[in-house]
Amino acid sequence: MDLIKLHATKRSTKGKGAARKMRKNKTFPAVIYGPKIDPMMLCLETSEFDKIIRDRGTSGLFLNMKIEGEAEVKSKVVMLKDLQMDTYGIEYLHADFHQIDMDTLVTVSVPVVPIGVSKGVKDGGGMLQIIRRELEVVCKPADTPESIEIDISDLDIGDAVHVEAIDLGESVEIPHEVNFTVITIVPPDAGEEEEELAEDEMMEEELEETADAPAEEPAE
Question: N or C: which end of the chain has fewer CB atoms below 10 A?
């Protein structure tokens, strides 16, 4: 896991008026919280944060945050938990960060990356369908993979990769109750019908998996 550097400034003002003033100054509000700290209101530089998001995305984002505004500059290892943007997805409105313990298990969404060219696509004209573009993993922060690479070279038309076939080693677990499909190769004439069926399957599986899930910790 690569810790990304991010600077933040402690702030005391809050409310919509203060947030608008910050955004006019090319900054925006954020908050950091965790089980062992009191929530702390922060101010982030929009340009610095935007570069990180453009380069790294928002999934599984761990940062070494240096916070100014106290007696001394302090660093905290944090994870991006929530990011609010305007209606057009252009302006950052607010970010939530969770301080993490490097020895504590975390749940992170990791992108799925197919490797190679399927023989079903190459020789049979089939279509690659990525049913799950991200998978949740449970691991210690240092063990978090940047991506989940799946070799699809031997997949023929009709073949699929299910979650139970993915081995990320002993230190990384993919929690699941259903052996759902991650990647499949469909016939060239499958078209929209296969895509709709895949989406329906994914929605049903997510409902089954999240029915009894505990509520997410609310942002401060």
Answer: C
- pTM, full prediction: 0.68
Give the residue numbers spanning the domain of 66: 4-99
Amino acid type, 83: L
Residue 95 contacts residue 82 (beta carbons within 8 Å): yes
Which residues have CB under 8 Å from 60's CB, separation 6+? 108, 109, 110, 144, 146
All residue ranges of the chain with pLDDT < 70 are: 1, 70-73, 190-220
Whether the Cβ atoms of residue 152 and residue 129 lie closer than 8 Å to each other: no
Domains contained in the chain, number? 2
